[in-house]
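the two lines:
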Amino acid sequence: MARLDPALQALALDPVPERNRNDWSSLDPQSPVALFRPRTTEDVAAIMTAAHTTGTVVVPQGGLTGLSGGARPIEGGVALSLERMTGVIDVDEAASTMTVWAGTPLEVIQKAAEERGLYFSLDLGARGSCAIGGNVSTNAGGNRVIRYGMARDLVLGMEVVLPDGTVLTNLNKMMKNNTGYDLKQLFIGAEGTLGIITRLVLKLHPLPGATHAAVLGAASYDAVLNMLTAARRGLGPNLSAFEVMWPDYWNIAMRAEGVRSPLAGEHAFYVLIESQGTDEGIDGARFEKFLEALFEQGVIEDGAMSQSLSDVKAFWATRDAAAEFKALLGPHMAYDVSMSVGRMDEYAQACRTRLARDVPGCLSCYYGHIGDGNLHLLAWVPGDAAQPQAEISKVVYEIIRDFGGSISAEHGIGLTKKPYLSYSRSPEELALMARIKAALDPKGILNPGKVIDAPLPATEDRT
Amino acid sequence: MARLDPALQALALDPVPERNRNDWSSLDPQSPVALFRPRTTEDVAAIMTAAHTTGTVVVPQGGLTGLSGGARPIEGGVALSLERMTGVIDVDEAASTMTVWAGTPLEVIQKAAEERGLYFSLDLGARGSCAIGGNVSTNAGGNRVIRYGMARDLVLGMEVVLPDGTVLTNLNKMMKNNTGYDLKQLFIGAEGTLGIITRLVLKLHPLPGATHAAVLGAASYDAVLNMLTAARRGLGPNLSAFEVMWPDYWNIAMRAEGVRSPLAGEHAFYVLIESQGTDEGIDGARFEKFLEALFEQGVIEDGAMSQSLSDVKAFWATRDAAAEFKALLGPHMAYDVSMSVGRMDEYAQACRTRLARDVPGCLSCYYGHIGDGNLHLLAWVPGDAAQPQAEISKVVYEIIRDFGGSISAEHGIGLTKKPYLSYSRSPEELALMARIKAALDPKGILNPGKVIDAPLPATEDRT
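prediction for all of em together
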């Protein structure tokens, strides 16, 4: 650090606040050598140029809400937080785009869009804390991917600082732009290992004019799949969420505060379907017609349709109850996997059985964004002892590997899932990732060791 | 070539057919030294391994319908056509995906989806001839990007052979998969310079149950922009096309065979709006309500709404008439640019004026996928003399540069637009593209000199 420019040193904050020593992963905190809080892209470029020259390791930080350790500082390295680079720069209504600084919290963006009758569709629980730069760097997903796609699908333009301090600025607002390699794709989902995103042009949608939802009980997974096909056809592009909860999840959710079952009786599967339309009358009628057809076909055992937006909220409370499970279950492990939609119940059954068999006393429960092929699962051994993390992860990920699924649907790899990355990606893919990393960051100074193993070069190589 | 394996030599076709000597660009044909037509991914890998070892230049070919020269052979190099690697491998209805060989014609894929009540949304004029591998390699767009996105948005999984013969197989069917770098993004839109796509997993949508369209006349570009905002809000995600035609285009289209004006009178702008819904009754009523509101707001001067699918087809005939303009106009230059939606008419005016001023006798006409920010324009000097290509391109692209637009919205760069790439991309971006190319193809053997200038290394370096 001694070789950094004195002007840059002045940007460093000392002592480093507690919050910048970790993200939301369960890893131990790690203090960085220094914390930089640049105000401009030029500041970021100057810091990276100096870091590149001196071989200093830099870990970029956004809202620090990541669950995989991607923003956790590295011993001996500095942290670079985007927390001062916030705010909406421009809303272009004709192009339906918003240009923002990367440190802007997601919720600020959502509200700025809403104020103009527009909609930024990315949404997740940490919306008040997470930063859009982090959302894009981790290719965040969330509840409405089935309709609007992941963060990747919402990025039109980007400014990014490369590990050597080069600034790439392409604040493109156009949906169609085939002028050479689409470089921004490299940085989306790279978890801050290839560059530091400083500005973004985001794609907006029209603000939905009407939202309807239903909670439905089904007797079999086949019935759930039929329902998904029917929802895709009957609701078309209005379909904005298709969430499935297994009874093991549902029964815990019913014990969470403020959650009441909209359904009488017990079912093998509980499905939450949401439709976002433009017109209360037209789209309400469409939703009702769709549900009636499902009943007539005998696909549903029981169902409740929202009569108001507060019903929609209440339905989501069953799905969002997972956030309160810590109080109900005590310490537990949370997983985020994806696989072929058709095999999800088979996976849940296999995982439940093998966890109970191979990890003494282990319970588990299942729920997720089934329309996207994304399953969440919680696993825990009741009691006060430390959770057998490695044993549980082994079972969860080994079955995913056997199913040809993904060990991370939306939470990324960071540090905590890196040991299992080879379960979902081939040696050839991992080798190409390393080749890309080396091409963009030959000195291995930007968030090294995250996502893929790119060992820190020896000190003498880093000058 | 002498050092290729004899078994591979047997795969080569001699003599090379006329069609494999060029694509649909206006460049002169170039015969490759040999033409390979592999049947399997292993064949492709073996050819690339041999080519890498011997330093042989390889140009991949799909349906050869590209307009920018990306698939045109290179002097002294071989061509590798995917024409024998065709067919649908798998349709997964629960996941709503289709797995195909890269040489499969687009239209075959569209029909295979339709047979199962599903929809592959990519569509363009060359559908019967173009291959999906080429569509993805050029990130093709087409008519319904405003709703479904570009080819990039329709690719979930990919198998690709790298320049050194390494096979990367990731036939992912999941919408959410954040396991390290999303490598497939590298190859989408890279025009065959980074790898040869052999298989693809494509995202399908439900087959639209109801299609409605209208042709509307507007008095000003502001009215067109108001119409676009109203269409986004009023039709929501049903909005599947928003095409605008300037009078110079419209008046030529009206002279094309089989095209009749659905509107009486003359207008400053002609707009074609299409809506794809799920239900004839519900979505027809919505479309009518939307049009009525436009009339009431005084945004439209005149309009015609489709009463049947044959009306929809007839409306599209006005937009598709461009394919017949060669007979009407004689030789002409076609451009495909994109820019901020709000400034398109300003661009059209500037371009029309400067072409008339700087290129003696030059006429031009304007139309495009305005909802996507994509403008097409035709320019020509009437008569039998050769078109002043360089002079016309200079005007078209210089104004695009001044507008901060893109010199290629959907047709790619290939050879013909390479001289102008710096008009849309910065030196830093071009340098990073070259770095990526060098990282994936260190010997510069795969489609070298396309998209970016990566000069062929000297022969002694290529062994």
